[in-house]
Each structure stands twice: as C-alpha cells, then as structure tokens.
Amino acid sequence: MTRQMKLIGFLQAQNCSNYPASWRHPDSKPNWFSRDYYQEIGRTLEHGKFHLAFFDDRLAIPDRFGDDFRETIRHGVRAAKLDPVSVALTMGLATERLGIGVTYSTTYYEPFHVARVFATMDLLLNGRAAWNVVTSLNDSEAANFGASQHLSHDLRYDRADEFMEVVLGHWNSWEDGAVSFDRESGLFADPAKVHRLDHHGQFFRSRGPFTVPRSPQGHPVIIQAGQSGRGKTFAARWGELIFVIYPNLDIAKKQYADLKGTLAKTGWDISIAPAVYPIVAETQAEAEDKFAAINRLAKPIDALTLLSEVLNYDFAAKPMDEPFTSDELASISGLQAIRDRVMNLSGKPNPTPRDFVQFSGRGTLAELPTFVGSPKAVADQMERWFCEGGCDGFVVAATHVPGTYQDFVRLVVPELQRRGLFQRDYQGDTLRENLGLPRPQAVHASADEEARVSTG
C-alpha cells in the first residue's frame, strides 16, 4: 500500500481546547462538561476516518504565575479539567473504530492502577485504547498529591522507565487463550496461563497476578512525546506513536530525521506526528479572515500563565526584558523541549521572558504550525510536510470546538483522500491494526502460541 498519513485528534477534557482562547470563540459550544459534547466530536472524527482521538491532561490548573489561581479562573486558561479516562470512555462507547487515547502520569499514580485502568478501557473498546505516557510538569501537580515539589527531570524518567516495566509486565501476564469460560467442564481460565509479576525494583514493588485478561489488540498502544535528550531515549524505548511539536518544516525535517534514527534501533516503523492548527474555509480569503478573528482571541495572560505552568517557573517573578541566567535556565524542571526551542529560535543562550513569550508561542496560534487556506491550500501544506520528510501524519489541534473538526472533516479529508494521502476506510477493528502496529506477544506465551500470534 502507498504510504498514507496518520491523523489524530488532539483533545482536552476541559473548558477549552489546547488553544486556551478557544472558549472565547463565538461558535465554541459551552457544554464542555457534557456527554453529548465529546460524543459529537468522536462521531465527527470517526466519520473522517481519523485513526485516533487522544486527550491531553494536567493534574493541576495553571497557577504557577504569581503563585495565584485567580487569573487562571477569571480568564478560563485551561481552568476546569475533567477526568480524561471517564470522558474518553464516553467518546469511545459512542464510536466503533476510532482509537481512544488518554494522558496519564507515571509520577503520581501506581503502575498496577494504571495498568488496570487502561487494560479495562481496552477491553471495553474492543482493542481501541491508547495511553499517552507523561511524567507531569510542575510543583502545582506535586502539591495536589501531597508532595512538596516535583521530581527532577531525569529522575522522573528513571522512575517512568521502571513504571513501564511494571505496567507491561502486568499486561503480559495473561496469555492469549487463558480464559475458557467452559461451563461444562467448570473451567473458567487456565491457571497455567496466568502469571505473577513479582516485581521488586528501585521505585516499585508489585506482586500480581494481574486482574484483567488481554484485549483483542494485546494491550493498549503507547503514545509518547519526549523531545528532550532523556525524553527521546524514553520514547525510543517505549513509544509506539510519537507526538511532537515542530515549529516549521525546516526544523521538522532535521528533528524528524534525528528522531527516526533513534527510533530505528527498535526495529519498528514508529509514526511521528506533529501538532498543527488547520484553519480552513471554502476560499483563501475566508480562511484568512477566520485566522485573523481567531488570533485576536488570545490574551497576554494566556501565554504567561501557560509558560509558568509548563516550565515550572514563575514568570511573574522576573522582569520581561531581563535575561535568564544560565543557572536559572538549568533550574527549569518542566518541559525542557520548550526551553530548548526558545533558545534555538531566538539564537540567544540567555533569552528573556519576552523571548519565551515570542518564540514559544505558548497560548497563541504561533505555538504550532498553522495551515490556513482553502481545502486545496491546506492539503498542499500537509502533503509537503508529509512527502518532504517532516512527519508521518498530524495531530490536528482545534482553535474552537467542534467547528475545527467539522470543517476539517468536511473540507480537507476528502481532498487528502482524493490525492491518495489518507485512508478512505479503517484497515481493521483494533487501533493497532489501523496504525499498522504489530500485536504484542505475551512474555509468558508458549512457543506454539508465539508462533500463532506472530503469523496471525
């Protein structure tokens, strides 16, 4: 089959999309707390044959700026957050083929709990679940879980590596075919095909046996977004779909090639998908007018609040034009990829807070590449990124909901399909089948079972 794009919907279980000003858009629906809101999005994405919808998440509202939550609440800067697993299940149960992914932290949960939550979701969705693995970001999240401060960057990843070992160990402890449900013989499941994990590590102890059998796709797909040095190592070890942010095509080509080289060591063809904002209308002029109107919705407080959140640094504590010292830059314990992006794009080893606002684009449309235009123009831009070595697909971010997804599915998807760049229908029933990923083998499977799984 000719190489085709992967398309992923980038969602939030909160009062706005990842564009914090989206709730101010006149066409944004206000019922973000309702079942109907998310089910409508899910049905739209499935109609457009999207591979996956995944929910980003944070475990605290953005309150690092000035150590105060009131401006966040007043301006609705990602101020209200629902539990994403509950929301994702609501969407998943209203769809049949769309993959459903959820962000969950390895820093503030226990591996057995996470393993059971996602294995259960995977069974309920007949093999369509994915887990976006994150290590969390800041001290506000730590405070919500009774800790005085967030773990250091590399220590978070060390802990996350062992976390993944435990989760995957539990997921693989039930062999395929373990459950017989044979009333006549009285055999529910073969105890020889269920195994204890008995993990004893630096961070975790977990005995087992696990409580959830394997799903039709084996276990949930692992999404990862690490772009720092340590993050890339983690992504290469565990990721099966990589979510990235590339500011432009030139940088995308370089970083895509570098990350693909790292991922090649796994022996898998792992897809890399950057986030983008598509703003599409029937004509170029209409799309440009839409862009201008959406761009005006952003406020300075959005950027400062979200930079403080994501970098775990209070931007209210430093004058806007005073350069960060090297020690201050080194102390940033949040998302280091944003710090590195600002230093790279500004050309300054010691950027100022104003440089962070400008070059991160945080809280504005400038944070992500923005494809603006007619259906043909947007498809042209996507095709260029895809065919010139910038990505394997796209994470489609919304400037307002549900309009962004409705416009994209109605106008851009048919153009991509016409060009042979995107699927006209799903390839299978499970998310792994639709992403072209192998079905993982249970570690304890017999030689006969391994041969059956690998060939079937």
Note the overall shape.
globular
Q: Distance between the terminal alpha carbons, to the nearest Å? A: 19 Å
Helix fraction, binned, reads 40-55%
Count of DSSP E strands? 13
Describe this structure in words.
This protein is an alpha/beta fold. It has one domain: Luciferase-like domain (TIM Barrel, Alpha-Beta Barrel), CATH 3.20.20. 40% of the residues lie in helices and 14% in strands. It contains 17 helices and 13 strands. The protein has helices at residues 35-47, 70-75, 84-92, 111-124, 139-144, 153-171, 229-238, 249-263, 284-295, 300-311, 326-331, 336-346, 353-360, 375-387, 403-418, 431-435, 447-455; strands at residues 6-12, 52-56, 99-105, 129-134, 179-182, 187-189, 199-200, 205-206, 221-224, 241-244, 271-280, 370-373, 393-397. The chain has an eight-stranded parallel beta barrel, surrounded by seven helices. Helix 12 (336-346) packs across helix 13 (353-360). The protein is globular and about 75 Å long. The two termini are 19 Å apart. FMN binds at residues 57, 103, 153, 157, 228. Residues 433-456 are annotated as: Disordered. This is NtaA/DmoA family FMN-dependent monooxygenase. Residues 36-386 form the Luciferase-like domain. Keywords: Flavoprotein, FMN, Monooxygenase, Oxidoreductase.
